[in-house]
Amino acid sequence: MEPATDDEIRTIKVYFNPAITFGVPMRPPSSTLDVLQTVTRRRPLLEALESEPRDKQALCESLECSRSTVDRGIRELEWLQFLRRDEGTYRLTVAGRLALAEQRRSAETLESIGDASELLADVPRGAPMSAALLAGARTIEPPSHAPAKPLQAIVDLVSSAERVRGVSAAERVPQLRTQLYDSVVDGDLEGEAVVTAEFARFIREEYPDWVTDVVIDGGFDLHVIDSVPYELALVETPSESRVFVFVHDESTAIRGLIENETPEAFEWGERVYREFRDASTPLSPSM
Questions:
Q1: How many domains does the chain have?
Q2: 131-160 pLDDT per residue, tens
Q3: Does residue 83 share a domain with residue 162?
Q4: I need a labelling partner for 190 at 20 to 30 A (CA). Which of 37, 133, 155, 222 fits?
Q5: What CATH number is given to the structural domain containing 28?
Q6: Could you give the count of Cα atoms lying within 13 Å of 20 in the half-sphere of its Cβ?
Q7: Backbone torsions φ then ψ of 282, nearest 5 degrees
Q8: CB contact at 8 A, 35 and 80
């Protein structure tokens, strides 16, 4: 008998390949990408089973699709063990619920990254950045007639804050300097900041009394660094903790604000602040 030709071998593989014959694989996906694509594609089916088990007819009605479409989705998710048949109905497994939650989280994070993509274009390459900051964040672009308006949120928070930390390259709103004075000198606000060398010189020259009262006598520590890729603020009140990132252009003009109050975002902000703090030096009285 003559050996099979290449064309004959390909025909045999196609004929006996369930993925081609039935349109679905007969084994679980072989890579993380396969799993991600399956969960994304079958998210409506996972969500239809989230609250309670359902049979195929109920799934068809809920999803407004054909029986064959539901059958394919069920087979794919069964192979992943994301759902299980139970007395004629289908229910999510623990793995299925986790996969659905993670897909939602990833989709929301990607949407947040997309919302901030234009603003992030002004962040220097290599600057500390994380999806943790962007997930669930608000992105605000200042109006042209009031470029400092987004910073008002920080001024309002500082009035009731217990602790404030920041990284800054310029004075944005005089109200913040005034509020810091009141909260440190007349209150019990704890705080510190990392500022650029140029900004530090400006503060000492323009507001020597403020430096004396707030920094030297008030205990609000100032540290100096050569430059910063963006500005950062961490504000803690008795009821909440928020992180703010101000993106600026080369002239230090504010391009926009990213604000987040999730624990993950605040933890990221604390790590980044420590990096700036560790790379800085204490403000010298003679600077």
A1: 2
A2: 999 998 988 887 777 777 777 888 888 989
A3: no
A4: 133
A5: 1.10.10.10
A6: 8
A7: -60, 145
A8: yes
User: Quick one: 30 and 93 in the same domain?
Assistant: yes
Nearest partner of 38 among 83, 86, 85, 68, judged by Cα: 83
234 and 93 together in one domain = no
Same structural domain for residues 132 and 76?
A: no
In a domain, 108, yes or no: no
**Residue 130 lies inside a defined structural domain of this protein:** yes
Give the span between the Cα atoms of 163 and 242, in whole angstroms: 11
pLDDT at 11: 36
* Residue 133 lies in domain: 122-282
CA of residue 276 relative to chain centroid, distance: 20
Name the residue with tokens 């997309």: 114
pLDDT over 60 (residue 30): no
What's the full length of the chain, in residues?
A: 287
pLDDT digits (tens, 9 = 90+) for 61-104: 999 999 999 999 999 999 999 999 988 899 999 999 999 999 99
Q: Same domain for 273 and 239?
A: yes
Please tell me whether residues 141 and 226 are part of one structural domain.
yes
Phi, psi (deg, nearest 5) at residue 196: -70, 160
Phi and psi at 203, nearest 5°, equal: -60, -45
The DSSP code sequence of 32-100 is HHHHHHHHHHTHHHHHHTTSS-B-HHHHHHHHT--HHHHHHHHHHHHHTTSEEEETTEEEE-HHHHHHH
Q: Tell whether the model's pLDDT for residue 233 goes beyond 90.
A: yes
Reported in sequence order, the residue ranges of the chain that DSSP labels E, i.e. its strands, are 83-86, 89-92, 138-140, 163-168, 190-196, 221-225, 231-236, 241-248, 254-260, 281-282
- Rounded Cα distance, 154 and 242, in Å: 9
Residues 162 and 59 placed together within one structural domain of the fold: no
Report yes or no on 117 lying in a domain.
no
Could you tell me the CA-to-CA distances from 165 to 36, 187, 229, 237 in Å, in that order? 39, 16, 16, 12
Beta strand pairing call for 163-168 and 190-196:
parallel
